[in-house]
Amino acid sequence: MTAASALPRPDRFDLDPKPVPFTVHASQKVHGGLALGALLVAVGFATSASTSPTGILRWFAAAGFAVLAVVCARALTVGDMLVADEVGIRLRIGHEWIGTRWEDIDEVTVLQRRHLLDDGRIAVHLLDPGPVLGVMPSSTRKTTDANRRLTGSSLAVPFGLTARPSNGEVVQALHMLANARCPVREQL
Q1: Which residues 6+ apart lie within 8 Å of 20 measured at CB?
Q2: Which one, out of 58, 92, 102, 162, has a CA that is 20 to 30 A from the CA of 133?
Q3: What is the pTM of this model?
């Protein structure tokens, strides 16, 4: 027996691994492709605007596609939209992060994607939304009010074509992280 073999070996077969954080983040490929396409169309309209009798309309179209290119390029800089870990869930709404612990959540509902062009949704229903929603700025509160009218929950994040979850099994991943502290169910 050598000194190296006498050292303790790390347990390679951990039967109870720590849950991996779950995230929903913007799809870089989709936003990059849209930004590049919109920019090329804007350049095309701008170059043809000076040689056409309807040049002013083409300039308006070029400006519209240029704005679309900027909006899509800005989406490339956006990081995670939702982060769930052992502690709780944090959602980014606008420029604000809103977080809560698993114990303060009534339930999490997941609406799965039905087809390629359909968006799924993760909605977080709080036991008492007053303290969390009361400290938000008015611009973020407008977004959460729209979320509540559209989805039934103030805290909701879509996923699908333009936003990708880190794990394809959304319900299972969130259920593992919640660890029976709140129910995670699939909305049918």
Answers
A1: 166, 167, 173
A2: 162
A3: 0.73
Question: What's the one-letter identity of residue 47?
Answer: T
Tokens (6 digits) for 96: 């604000």
Residue 15: phi and psi, rounded to 5, are -80, -20
pLDDT tens across the length of the chain (188 residues): 555 555 555 555 555 567 788 999 888 888 899 999 999 999 999 888 877 777 788 899 999 999 999 998 888 888 888 999 999 999 988 788 888 899 999 999 988 888 877 788 889 988 888 888 788 888 888 888 888 888 888 888 888 888 888 888 888 989 988 888 889 998 87
- Which of 98, 103, 108, 100 is CA-nearest to residue 186? 108
Here the tokens at position 168 are: 């394809």
Q: How far apart are CA 185 and CA 188, in angstroms?
A: 9
Give Cα separations from 129 to 84, 109, 120, 139 (angstroms): 18, 16, 23, 17
